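Batch job 17 of 40 flagged for manual review because the log was empty.
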Amino acid sequence: MTAATNRPAARAVPSCHDEAVAVEAPAGVPVVALVGNPNVGKSTLYNQLTGLSRDVGNWPGTTVAVGRTVWAAPSVGDVLLVDLPGTVSLDPQSPDEQLTRDLLVDRPADERPDLVVVVVSAVHLARGLYLLRQVQEGGLRAVVAMTMTDVADRRGVSVDLRALATAVGSRVVVVDPRRGLGRADLQDALRDGLSVAAPVGTATETGSAPGDALAAAEARFAWVTRAVDVATSHGPVGRTSWSDRLDRITTAPVLGPVLFLAVMWLLFQATTTVAAPVQAALDSFFSGPVSSAAVRLLGTVGLGGTWVQGLVVDGLIAGVGMLLTFVPLMAVMFAFLSLLEDSGYLARAAVVTDRTMRAIGLPGRAFLPLIVGFGCNVPGISSTRVLPDARHRLLTALLVPFTSCSARLTVYVLVATTFFGEHAGTVVFAMYLVSILLIVVVGLLLRATLLRTMGNDPLVLDLPPYQLPLPRLVATGTWRRLRGFLRTASGIIVATVVVVWALSATPAPGSAGTFGDVPVQDSVYAAAAGAVAPVFDPAGFGDWEATSALMVGFVAKEAVVSSWAQTFATAEPGSADDPGSLGDALRASFESSSRGHPVPAVLAFLVFLLAYTPCVATLAAQKREIGLRWTLTGVGMQLVVAWMLAVAVFQVGRVFA
């Protein structure tokens, strides 16, 4: 591994966010890069080798950032393993593909990886070999890791590994990262690949005349064709595979959308019913034994009845505890989404929805970032890098905040179960339908106004085969999402809870009381929210309690639940053993603010929560991708749309209530 011995002790590997992130590694550690076409199992292989949890899914466009870690590879030693965004070729058509080319081709030779693992699918071998040829032309040592051989076998395609290795001039190993197979063979290939001298690269077409580039591409295609012809054989093809037969249903023009809606309804129905008993038990646990134990403990150290007790019991336990009761609910939803991802159904959902999006003039490929946005807006905006056209990226980044992220789900469920009981699942499902409708309508308005000159781009998507979800991958995907939720609860949420409590404990100017001993309605917190509240009178929730929750939601939507828990726990009398019911307090609040029309007021509140300004993390992601001017334009648009919709829902709803 002589090529790696002169490397510095720490290298900065740029991320897909254009940020240089230093990876500390001992001197002489070689760099191994994973590259491949979208949806060939590259990031799953990265996770399987390193034990980490990158975003993976049985649909393309999952990896939009660079993963990097120092991996102690058995029989190889420490290597810096880098997972690059999926790319069809090294002729970039989008920013994420440009990043892959930059790291493999455009950097000086001593800053490129020591070895490249080109992950190829046995189902689409030619496509992967084209990328391999470009890697070899750059003078990089390469190893081929072949996935999906089981799928190829079912389709009557077999690959002779020795013949293929001879034809392409690189070691070829079979791996199945979903099941953890082929790891030892890959490690041996890495050891052997790092021990040989780097090949002499051929000239690339960068900067060459168009005719030269075309001749180079034709030469590659001829090379790929020879290799595929030599190494593959086709047996008798049986009847149509069950995956293809199922696609006739799931992607049908009429039945496909109906099935998609049914699956989504089942998701939210399960989310609101399966987790309900556990959620209720956790609520009782935090409001009862945990609060009581905290009061007793603080009393034994002389802090009972002080502002410290208020911070701990009415602040941290009431706020964070209420949020943590939603952990079972989020776990159920995340598990369901992981099942859909690993099975390959989400790719079909993209095809089904794409028909509608293209019919109204939206770019087809934009559906993939939007799907990511329904999990979290931040990676959804980052995922716009898969779009080749800058105007498409701009439009999609403006629309992603209208996707109803999982953080909003906690508020939907709390409000829906409080006001709609057994119909809560249907109400939550309706919010996601409204989210889709908003994306469509706002997209049309933007196309007709700010982005009139933007063209249309159809969705080109290689549907992965259906696969039986593996419990290990489903559990990993569920935990990865749930861990992100918990990190938020332990980070931003805790800080928000403390700030909200401090404002609630501070008397407003002209009010009686002292710090830590003031009715919440006389606090600075209530005064600030009350100054804004009249704006929402036409929407039916013009009281300080609802307004303050929306103000806190600007930081993080999960904090809406925590702020309500703090507000009503502080406002209600009684001991810590009997803090009162948050649901009863919410019903009373909306009954009062709506002047006897709580249901339309609640629906107006939910619509505003869905459509208004996203969290600060989303705004930061937007600023990075589309700049400050367009980010502020998006914020103004979202506030106007949210307010107008909320007012319309309440004013129309109270007529029929």
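Reviewer: the log was empty due to a logging misconfiguration, but the result itself is present. The first strand starts at residue 10 and ends at 14. Unflagging and moving on to job 18.
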